[in-house]
Design a protein that fits this description.
The chain is mainly alpha-helical and about 450 residues long. Helix content is about 60%, strand content about 0%.
Length: about 450
């Protein structure tokens, strides 16, 4: 009975991490090497909440946009994957700044240090987030997160690849290195990120007086809205006080239906295209300008800027309530099922990569990352019914089988050699059958 109670308490503690309900004494460590990977530990619990939310929404009669959710999850997997390549670098920079330029010594095991770190990290996140909405080249990266027309827990996964690769958030955390020990910083940078998972759900709503201090789902609904009143509001991570202090707070209005997504909303699911398309949108603003200065400054002005407008543009020129239909994929239910199975397989492999990354050889690491990227890209092309879908899927399955055999398998991974072979072989046969069927219909 004691073991059962311990297990339940442990599960409750893991869910608590998503809400910043954690013990300072249990989450304080002397060195960064001692800090757990809380994001990886939280993954199973986030998945259960995603499934629960989807079931509740289905029960309430709300249509689920599967393609949109898969695109969001795919983006998050790629972002965290490429982030593994550079995470160590930014942590080394933070440690160097703290070691050589700190202005005071805070004890790593103090509850006061724990609270100070939480506040300073969130303040850094606020300015990163605000800059990502007010500087065009940063918005060209960040817009990926806002490109979902849905607002549910999977939307939290829709993160930009370049944000992970270049560790954009962490550069805004560097001022904290003047006082905050590296181990405390590493812990709280994870918890500020994890807290923002649950606020991407309409099911939770307002949390009463706690909203005067903490960020909420209703505030974040405003942030993701493309209604005019929603633009450039509510940047805080887990605290709402920064928005109130710096004049960017906006509560949710009940007299308007919130329309989620971008002003220039893309109508595709291609995860690679999502990462790049907005850079061209920025450049197009000055395509006909003869002022060479505009060609440079356009990247540092607001994403709403056009020649002749103030630096941040003029939101009054945006529609009060955008009028558009939500974009759905028209593929069959069986195709959806096939793609969700591929996503689950990649999710498992991504989890293996997260756990084993530090001990993997460079060759195996690159092979696993290439497989994840290739698979997720292929999934997104399926949803767009792109002409290259079948060729890419056939080549993915065939090449993956060949490389896997050449490598002699991946013994440390969750999939056994036979399981992976069955997965890729069956996927290859299904794709070949779909290709023949498609050709017959066209004939």
């Amino acid at each position: 009975m004691a073991n059962v109670s311990l297990s339940v308490a442990d599960v409750a503690e893991q869910y608590g991490m998503l809400f910043y309900i954690i013990s300072p004494s249990k989450t304080s460590f002397p060195t960064m090497e001692d800090c757990p990977d809380y994001l990886q530990k939280a993954m199973p619990y986030m998945v259960t909440l995603i499934v629960l939310e989807a079931v509740i929404n289905w029960w309430m009669g709300k249509k689920h946009n599967v393609a949109d959710s898969v695109t969001s999850i795919s983006s998050g997997l790629i972002m965290t994957m490429v982030g593994m390549l550079t995470h160590g670098m930014i942590l080394s920079i933070y440690s160097y700044v703290h070691e050589h330029y700190r202005v005071m010594d805070l004890p790593w095991d103090s509850a006061v240090t724990w609270v100070i770190t939480a506040v300073l990290v969130d303040l850094g996140y606020y300015w990163f987030h605000r800059a990502s909405h007010e500087v065009a080249f940063l918005w060209s990266v960040h817009q990926v997160h806002h490109s979902s027309e849905e607002f549910n827990l999977t939307t939290a996964f829709r993160q930009p690849v370049f944000q992970g690769l270049f560790q954009l958030t962490h550069w805004f955390y560097l001022p904290a290195a003047l006082v905050v020990p590296p181990s405390q910083f590493l812990v709280h940078s994870q918890f500020v990120f994890l807290f923002q998972f649950w606020i991407h759900s309409e099911l939770i709503g307002d949390i009463g007086p706690l909203g005067w201090i903490f960020n909420t789902s209703t505030y974040h609904q405003v942030h993701h809205g493309s209604n005019r009143y929603c633009l450039d509001k509510n940047y805080g991570g887990f605290l709402s006080v920064w928005d109130r202090i710096f004049g960017t707070f906006q509560d949710l209005r009940s007299d308007q239906e919130t329309v989620y997504g971008l002003i220039d909303q893309p109508q595709f699911f291609n995860i690679i295209k999502h990462q790049f398309f907005y850079f061209k949108c920025i450049q197009d603003k000055v395509a006909t300008s003869t002022d060479w200065l505009d060609q440079i400054t356009v990247w540092f002005k607001g994403p709403g800027w056009f020649p002749g407008l103030p630096r941040l543009g003029n939101n009054d020129l945006c529609p009060e309530i955008p009028e558009r239909k939500i974009h759905y994929s028209t593929i069959s239910i069986l195709s959806h099922l096939y793609l969700v199975i591929q996503l689950i397989g990649v999710f498992i492999i991504h989890d293996d990569l997260s756990r084993l990354y530090g001990s993997m050889t460079q060759g195996v690491t690159l092979a696993v990352m290439a497989f994840i990227l290739w698979t997720l890209t292929s999934i997104s092309l399926h949803y767009d019914e792109h002409p290259l879908t079948i060729p890419m899927e056939l080549s993915r399955c065939a090449v993956s089988l060949a490389v896997y055999q050449m490598m002699g398998g991946w013994k440390e991974g969750t999939f056994t050699s036979s399981a992976f072979t069955v997965w890729m072989t069956s996927s290859l046969l299904i794709t070949m059958a779909a290709s023949f069927s498609s050709k017959k219909k066209k004939a």
